[in-house]
Amino acid sequence: MDSMYSFLRFIKISRVLMRYRLDSLVLSTPLLKSFKPLVYLIPWHYFPVKKYTRGQRIRLALEELGPIFIKFGQTLSTRRDLIPKDIGDELAKLQNNCPAFDPIKAKKIIEQSLGESTENLFKRFDIKPLASASIAQIHTALTNDDNEVVIKVVRPDINKVIQHDIKLMYTLAMLFNKHQLSKKLRPIEVVAEFENIILNELDMRIEANNCLKIGKNFKNSSLLYIPKIYPNLCHKNILTIERIHGIPVNDIEQLKANNIDMKQLAEEGVIIFFTQVFKHNFFHADMHPGNIFVNTNGQYMGVDFGIMGTLTKTDKDFLADIFIAFFNQDYKKVAQIYIDSGWISSTTNIFSFETAVQRICEPMFEKPLGEISFGQVLLELIQEAKNFDITIQPQLLLLDKTLLNIEGLGRQLYPQLNLWTTAKPFLENLVKEKYSIKHTFEKIKDQTPQLLKDIPELPSMTINAIKQLNQIKDIGHLYIQQTNIIVNQLKNNENKHTSAILAGSMTILSGILAVNTFWLPSLFSSIIALIFWFQSI
């Protein structure tokens, strides 16, 4: 049965590829190149589609192939480092509106998952769906406590559909992997990334936890309102969340009609993003206009928390350093930051990479700061790094996709938005924190266990080195004088090394005590460290 389904699905995919003239791309792979003349035997070849661009043809084909391929196209649109701009722009237009499934089935899924009838669970349950997307369908309801909610119900049997379609995607990816473009597009990597994202989105408990976490981060905030989650009405395939009423953020006319300050709204959108990234280290990675609303007081309201991003401390430092170097017009520093990151391949030509960075950055420096796209700069640097076989962390790509969305949205709301003015305080504070005394002591504290483990070994290592040098004296009279000098120097240094080790140990101890606000013992440890340090000079 599965093999028959896969075969029929493959036939449908082939038909759609042919219809939108994407078959020639598949048949241009080395494996199928000899079959390319078959295109002339296909009826569709003689009935050309309207004059669509290649990006439009890909978008239309994905829309015809259904929900999973639409979702795949949306995911692919976030990988601007891998796909050409015209295709990325078209894929970003993919709409997640899909035909609704039988609402009676939705009602049954809710009741089976939550263990009670909808009549008992809710004061009112609206059988007509509010919306339907690739993964889930939305119904509205009223709780027994008179709270308006929306219920997200995962499509029935969607797991099987996804598994079959992903298998076919891998087949197509492996086929396309033989095309020369695959080195840049990396089709198998993209399908694997999509598989991971969509499987996470199937579990509503993950989204519920994400919503609770970001809600806690913005608790009592005037910047962003996060809807309330109803945990007792949630399940693996059911999410029940407070229903919000707001103006879609891209409805400019309606926002202006409500006297919303557009400049403030644009700037606060940027502040929300940088707060999530640099303060909370937990950011909404799907902040497109369909997921953002504004209430009549001008406060943002967010929904759909299936895809969230986090950065390591190294990632955050890298990001802050890159932007600060860029706005200081120091392209050599930009290249050096990449080099220092450790992502450079052994085959990378560093001089050529610096030249490429200069080529990207110099034209940007000629623009006023208000006209520079943060996201575009980062994207071009990421794309160039890929060309030099420099591995970029996936979370930075996710962040850049979100940054591009926020930037585009901000300038749609207020075209004069200067992102640098808003972002600068966050980046400067991050750099100050990075080089602060407190951060240094905390770093020492983290490394203390390993240092304390290694310190006892150092004297014995020194003694062993001296013994070995003493043995070398027997090699011959020609080296006696030089060896004696070295041995005497090592013996002389042994005491100094011991003092230096003790000074270092006491300094570490002083730092740990200071971090934990034990000021008097910290001062005493510092004095002892100073004494040992003088002895080591």
Automatic annotation (TrEMBL):
Q: Which BP terms in the Gene Ontology apply to this protein?
A: ubiquinone biosynthetic process
Q: By its UniProt entry, which Pfam families does this protein fall under? A: ABC1
Q: What is its pathway?
A: Cofactor biosynthesis; ubiquinone biosynthesis [regulation]
List membrane-spanning regions.
501-534
Q: Which UniProt keywords apply?
A: ATP-binding, Cell inner membrane, Cell membrane, Kinase, Membrane, Nucleotide-binding, Transferase, Transmembrane, Transmembrane helix, Ubiquinone, Ubiquinone biosynthesis
Q: Name one GO molecular function term.
A: ATP binding
Q: Start and end of every ABC1 atypical kinase-like domain? A: 93-337
| Superkingdom to which the source organism belongs | Bacteria
UniProt xrefs under InterPro entries: ABC1_dom, Kinase-like_dom_sf, UbiB, UbiB_bact, UbiB_kinase
Q: Which family does it belong to?
A: Belongs to the protein kinase superfamily. ADCK protein kinase family.
Question: PANTHER family under this entry?
Answer: CHAPERONE-ACTIVITY OF BC1 COMPLEX CABC1 -RELATED, PROTEIN ACTIVITY OF BC1 COMPLEX KINASE 7, CHLOROPLASTIC
Q: What is this protein called?
A: Ubiquinone biosynthesis protein
Give the source species: Vesicomyosocius okutanii subsp. Calyptogena okutanii (strain HA)
Q: What is the lineage of its organism?
A: Bacteria, Pseudomonadati, Pseudomonadota, Gammaproteobacteria, Candidatus Pseudothioglobaceae
